[in-house]
Design a protein that fits this description.
alpha/beta, Purple Acid Phosphatase, chain A, domain 2, 5-stranded mixed sheet, 5 helices, about 15% helix
């Protein structure tokens, strides 16, 4: 199966170049921008309209912290699934024989949607099943495509350590996420492996910090 992984499009989805021959498209969150769920609703509806009409047979959406109108119920599961999109919120779907599980949650940073404190978020990760073909989370595990600058302009790794521990315990074949964008001199968008795990990691972020009005990556195409 050929999978197109995109994330953090932030209303720039219309700029994306859609690759040919894709069987499944997966968006791992932050399709929209506004924190105010009432302003966010029209954005997320516009994204869903675009996503639903892509010429790709299978579509999966895992929301992110910016997708506030979905968490608040202004956008409903029925609306999304009626358009032929699989919505995953701590749940699994089987597509073409592949086991796919997705969660929108990430460690708390400010007051956004689908966030949990770092001290308790492991309760969600403990529900990640074994033997997955694709694990989708909005945010990255610690130390994998998660470098950014802190408020003092120093580089730090901001991924979730509890998620990294769970992935090490029940390694999926592929892990897809976004949330942490690239910057002018740090490249998080793309794929990589780490020596101690069999998992292929994909950060599908399509926008860079400081360039949020334009697409800087067109996602990752994965052969699974």
């Amino acid at each position: 199966m050929k999978v197109w992984h995109i994330s953090d499009t932030h209303m720039n989805h219309g700029q994306l170049i859609v690759p040919e021959g894709i069987d499944t498209v997966i968006h791992s969150g932050d399709a929209s921008n506004w924190k105010d769920p009432y302003r966010n609703e029209s954005e997320l509806r516009a994204f869903i309209d675009w996503f639903a009409t892509l010429p790709i047979p299978n579509k999966v959406f895992v929301p992110g912290n910016h997708d506030t109108s979905l968490e608040k119920g202004l956008i409903t599961r029925d609306l999304i699934e009626h358009r032929g999109i699989h919505l995953l919120i701590n749940e699994e779907v089987n597509i073409g024989g592949l086991r796919i599980w997705g969660s929108p949650f990430s460690p708390r940073y400010g007051d956004w949607s689908y966030m949990r404190d770092r001290g308790t978020i492991n309760r969600i990760w403990d529900t990640i099943p074994e033997s997955l073909d694709i694990l989708i989370t909005h945010g990255p595990p610690y130390g994998v495509l998660d470098a950014t600058y802190d408020h003092h302009n120093k580089v730090e790794l901001v991924g979730c350590s509890a998620l990294r521990k769970r992935v090490a315990k029940v390694p999926p074949r592929f892990m897809l996420f976004g949330h942490v964008h690239s910057t002018h001199d740090i490249r998080n968008a793309g794929t990589r492996t780490v020596s101690e795990l069999p998992t292929v990691f994909s950060n599908g972020s399509c926008c860079d910090d400081g360039k949020m009005g334009m697409v800087t990556s067109h996602g990752n195409v994965l052969e699974i």
